Input
Amino acid sequence: MTSSTPITSFEQLAIGQPILQALREIGYEAPSPIQAESIPHLLEGRDLLGQAQTGTGKTAAFAIPILARIDLSRRVPQALVLAPTRELAIQVAEAFQTYARHLHGFHILPVYGGQGMGSQLRQLARGVHVIVGTPGRVMDHLRRGTLSLGNLTTLVLDEADEMLRMGFIEDVEWILEQTPPTRQIALFSATMPTGIRKIADRHLKNAAEVKIKAKTATVEAISQRYWLVSGVQKLEALTRILDTEDFDAMIIFVRTKTETVELAEKLEARGYEAAALNGDMSQALREKVIDRLKKNALDIVVATDVAARGLDVERITHVVNYDIPYDSEAYIHRIGRTGRAGRKGKAILFVAPRERRMLRAIEQTTRQAIEQMRLPTLQDIADRRIQQLKAQLVQTMDDEDVSFYRDLVEKLVNEGIGDAADIAAALAYLMHRERPLEAPEEPEPPALEHVRERPRERTRPESGLRRYTIDVGREHGVQPKDIVGAIANETGLSSRLIGQIKLFDAYSTVELPADLPDDFFKLLKKTWVKNQRLNLQLLDNGGRKPHKKPVKPDASKFGKPKAATPNKRSAQRRSTEDQL
Ligand code: AMP
Output
């Protein structure tokens, strides 16, 4: 494959069946722009300078070609990814595991400070193919001689500008010098400050440069708003929007084919006329969906970028970006599905806090501010339904002959069962029995009941939950039920409040309520599972203690911790617990 051929599908890339199979299962429909442009160069073994930010699919852009070129029979580090934070290192390792699910015997090791050295040393001694680490800890291992990079073929610097900003750049350069001169380097950075340019000039040879370019576009006919994802689940937010926006037809964009189907099904189950549109469907089936949309038989289509390309249906008044697009171009393309034929259109974008950079990039490209929107409250929805009822009543009184029912009501009043208002109230009640008009109470805290509805490949915690690491993993023979059991037993926390659990070789991650009281946290640090001390640590603030001052446990939700002291199963305590 030459790098000049435009890449529109993963099948065009020489990445082998096992990876293609994994990508099909995850539901990636087509390579994102950074992937389409970077993967061919990386497969050829060229150095690469990539300017792309989080959310563009850059992790897969380097992980896929590394996996495609790895020699599984040699258990030596062949690729090293340097990342600025422990959170990113873990996320990158998770992404590798996902794409490598059919590469049997593949081993990756995340190394970062704040994690016991012991298990890292054991795994390094056993042999791994890829290492993802923060510069400090990687340097430690190199100095101790517990890691050798003599067989390295690829070095990735991920979020290089962040590493520069965090003062790691000298460490990065030192590590770079410990690698064989023949290795390929892929440098990814959201911005290109001089410090990064200098590194690129000094160490990259004949590098291909890939930049996710931004085009200016005119999108004046479309009013654009964004909702910063917080408090309630995205699905709940979407249904509130559906219940309050005046829309004729709507396109909702998601990232994967699987998600188009899942979301369409959830909306159908909630009574909306929705269908999926994705590249897995036959041309005939896709045309049928579009036809139904045109003929009002369908109001909502949940689509991927590829499937919605060129879609031209006049009645689309709204575009919802349920998942943020990879780049500004995709955004412009998506929202261009509305505002057709000189009409006005509306675009709504869901932005997770960590995606705010992408929001700014989109605003710069379109040269238009995207206005922040307030999510409709349950009261807003109730008010709107009452307005709709009023309008329906007026219209019925104007347009329909209701004399039979009028006589009936008068007869009932004369019989003395109640006055006209009582009877109207009872009828309105019956009409709304399924879904009462009264506003229910706003869920507070965020609806944790939805936790179990999450998609399989989610890499970020559900809102209302935070991700923690625990020092017990597959190599200790642990299963998710052991972890749920131990947490529930030790703390009395309902298993309903425990989110996703992911097992890795030496450790696992678990999602727990963001407002976990301090004494629960302390207790779980000391809890033992499979002879390992859990040593619970918050994943997204560098492993430091999450609560500065003790948080008062919310008795209604958490109850009292069951055990005041951890049970004393015999096991060795870890001694080396150095921080980055
Ligand atoms: P990243 O920029 O690497 O942080 O990736 C952002 C998100 O995009 C991750 O959740 C990936 O799973 C997802 N993603 C990456 N590549 C693709 C693709 N080709 N199709 C759909 N989703 C993707």
In short: The first strand starts at residue 48 and ends at 51. The domain at 459-549 is CATH 3.30.70.330 (Alpha-Beta Plaits). Confidence is low (pLDDT under 50) at residues 445-458, 541-557, 562-580. The chain has 20 helices and 20 strands.
